[in-house]
Fold this protein.
Amino acid sequence: MPIVLYQPDIPQNLGAILRLAACMDTPLHIIEPCGFPLDEKRVRRAGMDYIDHVSLTRHASWEAFLDARQGGRIILMTTSGDTSIYDITIATDDWLCFGRESSGAPEEVHRDADIRAMIPMKQGLRSLNLAMSAAIAVSEMRRQQCLD
């Protein structure tokens, strides 16, 4: 199941998610533009020695991503989700999508998502870190695969 980052803002989160994707053997897709320069040197620095173990695909826009995507549902992870990630049966061809750290996902991404999921958390708190949210969602997907 691929991880999709919509226009990430924080290079350190990208680095942590690159490492997560490498260690969990999960493809990573980045929807550009990013909130920071994303050249080969910066990707290598963010991914350290893990970058060579990641299947990384960059898309120039949300529309380009949609055109390239084959099959599976888009599961948008959002604080405004209406379904817990733990109540979804996740398929291996689904796409785990995450919005920008600063502003989340825009309306077009919400509109195109098949499922808007959230991670249940303590009432009154705003959100988890993007990399932490990705790790929780990927771990739930892996847990479900182990049950099959």
